[in-house]
């Protein structure tokens, strides 16, 4: 049972969603939402078996990765060293490799990292996770896309990121951290309430950040918040209708030859761009 906010320790949380034995409790003070009951690291890691990654090999996810790469690429210098933390089967790595970056990958899934190493021939790493896994100031940038909402030890991981990122005297050249995550205060969550898609990934998602709450923990870890912006995802009609179990509509799109038509849905996610504060 979670009795207090993990961000600001406020004890007056209220329920915003319930599914089976799980509840999502939200803090009215900082806006952070938390899954109750909250898993241990060991319990959370058991979710990511090989079949977890099956639909993540869809071309839709490559388009997602391309959109993320285009955003990150604008903020980095050529030949930067980038760690893809929690990168799964390597969608981002596959796109970023074309940009000439020095790439590294970490994931809790041995299956995913074996796939990435075999496919892209870059250094890959798996647990145990500690601050000594990488050297101090080893990376110019870290990307952690759709990751922090899964981590029971998110504060510790942010502290690791701070250590691993480069320290430079010029603020514009300091180490960069880019994260995407669901926004519990997004427009679609406010509009749809308990029917919001942002609440449906239980028990994979255990942390539900608002812009305010992610800003608090980022600053505590030593980062400057450069930008928090609305983000979304690319999905084909076939993917959407299959997930919604609308098989008749899915069949029609195949008949019409438009099943692979992709749309961008700027909904419940946010892109969080941070810089290492060297003060």
Layout of strands and helices, then pairs:
Blueprint: E1 14-19, E2 22-26, E3 33-36, H1 41-45, H2 59-73, E4 81-85, H3 91-96, E5 102-106, H4 110-120, E6 124-125, E7 141-145, H5 154-164, E8 176-182, H6 187-192, E9 207-208, H7 211-220, E10 223-236, H8 237-243, H9 247-256, E11 262-276
Parallel strand pairs: 4-5, 4-7, 5-6, 7-8
Antiparallel strand pairs: 1-2, 2-3, 3-9, 8-11, 10-11
Describe this structure in words.
It comes from candidate division WWE3 bacterium CG22_combo_CG10-13_8_21_14_all_39_12. The protein is an alpha/beta fold and 279 residues long. The protein has one domain (14-276): 3-Layer(aba) Sandwich (Rossmann fold), CATH 3.40.50.150. The chain is built from 9 helices and 11 strands. Strands 6-5-4-7-8-11-10 form a 7-stranded mixed β-sheet. A 4-stranded antiparallel β-sheet has the order 1-2-3-9, with no helix packed on it. Strand 7, helix 5 and strand 8 (176-182) form a beta-alpha-beta unit. Helix 8 (237-243) runs antiparallel to helix 9. The model has no long low-confidence stretch (mean pLDDT 90).
List key phrases describing it.
alpha/beta, 279 residues, Rossmann fold
Secondary structure: helix percent: 25-40%
Give the rounded overall mean pLDDT. Answer: 90
Which CATH top level class fits? Alpha Beta
Strand order of the largest sheet: 6-5-4-7-8-11-10
Q: In the CATH hierarchy, what is the architecture at level 2?
A: 3-Layer(aba) Sandwich
At the third CATH level, what is the topology name?
Rossmann fold
Radius of gyration over C-alpha positions, nearest whole angstrom: 19 Å
């Amino acid at each position: 049972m979670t009795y207090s906010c993990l961000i600001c320790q406020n004890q007056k949380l209220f329920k915003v969603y319930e599914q089976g034995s799980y509840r999502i409790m939200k803090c009215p003070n900082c806006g952070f939402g938390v899954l109750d009951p909250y898993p241990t690291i060991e319990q959370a890691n058991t979710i990511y078996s090989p079949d977890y990654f099956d639909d993540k090999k869809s071309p839709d996810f490559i388009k997602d990765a391309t959109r993320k790469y285009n955003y990150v690429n604008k903020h980095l210098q050529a030949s930067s060293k980038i760690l893809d933390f929690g990168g799964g089967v390597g969608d981002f790595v596959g796109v970023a490799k074309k940009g000439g970056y020095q790439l590294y990958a970490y994931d809790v899934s041995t299956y995913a990292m074996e796939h990435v190493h075999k496919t892209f021939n870059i250094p890959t790493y798996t647990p145990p996770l500690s601050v000594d896994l990488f050297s101090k100031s080893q990376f110019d940038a870290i990307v952690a896309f759709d990751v922090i909402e899964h981590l029971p030890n998110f504060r510790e991981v942010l502290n690791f990121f701070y250590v691993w990122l480069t320290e430079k005297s010029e603020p514009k050249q300091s180490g960069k951290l880019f994260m995407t995550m669901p926004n519990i205060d997004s427009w679609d969550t406010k509009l749809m309430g308990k029917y919001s898609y942002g609440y449906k990934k239980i028990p994979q998602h255990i942390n539900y950040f608002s812009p305010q709450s992610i800003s608090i923990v980022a600053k505590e870890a030593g980062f400057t918040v450069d930008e928090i912006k609305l983000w979304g995802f690319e999905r084909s009609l076939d993917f959407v209708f299959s997930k919604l179990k609308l098989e008749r509509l899915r069949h029609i799109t195949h008949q019409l030859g438009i099943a692979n038509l992709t749309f961008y849905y700027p909904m419940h996610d946010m892109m969080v761009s941070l810089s290492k504060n060297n003060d």
